Amino acid sequence: MIKGVFHDIFGLIAEFFQKPEAWWLVALLALTGAGSAFVLPDVFLMPVLLEVFRFLLRTWWLWAFFLLVPLTAGAWKHWRQELFKHSLEFVLLELHMPREVTKSPQAMEQVLQTFQSVRGDPDNIVEEFWDGKFVIPISLEVVSFGGEVHFYIRCQKKQQHMVKIALFSYYTDVEVRETEDYLGRLPTSDADMVARGWDFWGTELILLREEAYPIKTYDAFAREAEEEQFDPISVLLEVFGSLKGEEVAAVQLLVAPADPEWGTRWEPFLANLRKPATIEVASDDESKRQAPVARSPRQLEVLEAVEGNLSKPAFDTLIRCFYAAPVSLFNDAVVKSGIVGAFNQYTASDLNGFKSNSNAGVKANPWKWPHVRARRRTSYRRQRFFWNFLQREVPPATWWGKLVTSSPLNLNFASKRFLLTTKCVATLFHPPTAGVLTAPHIKRVESKKAGPPSGLAIFGEEGEIEHYV
User: Nearest to residue 397, comparing CAs of 413, 384, 373, 385?
Assistant: First the structure.
């Protein structure tokens, strides 16, 4: 109980100091307090101010404790987590598609549910604060090199067998091979990109509404398509397939298994959503009373969608979009609108959708705070974004980690993660259906696999191992 109370107090303090405005407020209060003794003309206020000053002097140790302990713990935790992260080995797996994929994105949803078993969160305080253990994300990536589209999964080396058997359990014709990281073909930094005569654009996406609301998922697209099956990933592949020459575009979905009980914190929200709307009506005795209003069919569908969304496993998700090309080919306007437009199709006005996180993009807006040095802030943003893309970075878990990775004109508090369920992630990333694969503008790699490799476990419909090959 005591641990929970301190955790909540430290969480509120850390959340307050995550806002840049908080530091301006603290500085303003400090200056006001220091100057008040010289500018206040009312002598009757001086005794009160002196008593407040004496109280703060007597209790300074208490305020120092509440400020320094969470900051010190956060600094230590960030250091240990960085050491833990750099001790890991990763592999990049490429998905080689067959001529036809008959499975719907629901199969990918089952694959993602098996990823929940490798959450790997710390079990005790030693693992959390000494080993620096934390949940490492898996990166799901769609990449285009001049119109040739590739699907990748980047995971820890010790997890690759699990990823392969999970994929083969539901996509028996999809071949998964370890490959060299394609990021080695790109410039190593923003300065290197400029030196090579290249330019790039990038942004991160965030949700429009609360995480309890789902985005438009694959089953909604199937209902709307009626007779002809429509695969929503085809819109993104249309954009990626239109690239030429040395143009490169990529979408990274960094997903880390979330707490299995993530939906419980939305129970008050769900309870409020279940309450019927009411109107005020007059009774026979001329008094007023509240009468419930019948829900519309669509309101019932929204409630059902939220309930279904909260019942599924979720991932802490970060979506990053990237485009680069030689200056002679660079056309960020077309690709920017194409990539963002591809994600706009997942928006339902009464549910959820995506929007660009302008604060985490590559260009600083001079009309937004702090309104100065826009070109310098743009340079810092470009460096940070490109580094995060190359390293597949997610925001530091602690407030101190975000602070020490900040610069005066580019605080590292803009990047945001959010929760998406397995169904939502499967809608965004899955092996495309046969109609998409055979489209003439989409290049693909032919799978030559005749059968499963030996030793693979075959999963059943519920995610349990049925037998081994």
Answer: 413
Mean pLDDT, the chain, integer: 82
Residues near 244 by beta carbon (within 8 Å), at least 6 away in sequence? 146, 147, 329
> Is residue 293 one of the residues assigned to a domain?
no
Contact call for residues 337 and 445 (beta carbons, < 8 A) = no
Q: Which amino acid is at 462?
A: E
Distances (CA, A) of 325 to 68, 180, 236, 373, 397: 46, 21, 18, 27, 33
At position 23, the amino acid (one-letter code) is W
Q: Confirm if 69 and 14 have CB atoms less than 8 A apart.
A: no
Q: Are residues 131 and 250 in the same domain?
A: yes
Which tokens is 238 given? 């249309």
Q: Give the separation between CA 194 and CA 190, rounded to whole angstroms.
A: 6
* 416 residue type, one letter: K
Cα separations in angstroms, 391 against 189, 292, 388, 395, 415: 11, 54, 5, 12, 15
Burial 15-35 (b: 16+ CB within 10 A, else e): eebeeeeeeeeeeeeeeeeee
On whether both 31 and 99 belong to a single domain, the answer is no
Residue 241, SS3? helix
pLDDT digits (tens, 9 = 90+) for 396-422: 988 888 888 888 888 889 999 999 999
The pTM of the full predicted model, rounded to 2 decimals, is: 0.82
Radius of gyration of the chain (CA): 26
236 and 190 share one domain? yes
Q: How far apart are CA 316 and CA 39, in angstroms?
A: 51
| Whether 255 and 397 share a structural domain | yes
Please report the DSSP string for 70-95 in residue order.
Answer: HHHHHHHHHHHHHHHHHT--EEEEEE
* Domain tally, the chain: 2
Res 318: pLDDT: 97
Are 133 and 9 part of one and the same domain? no
Residue type, 138: I
Q: Give the Cα separation of 76 and 122 in Å (integer).
A: 16
The dihedral of CA 351, 354, 359, 365: what is its sign?
negative
Asked if residue 416 belongs to a domain, the reply is yes
Q: Is the dihedral of CA 16, 21, 25, 26 positive or negative?
A: positive
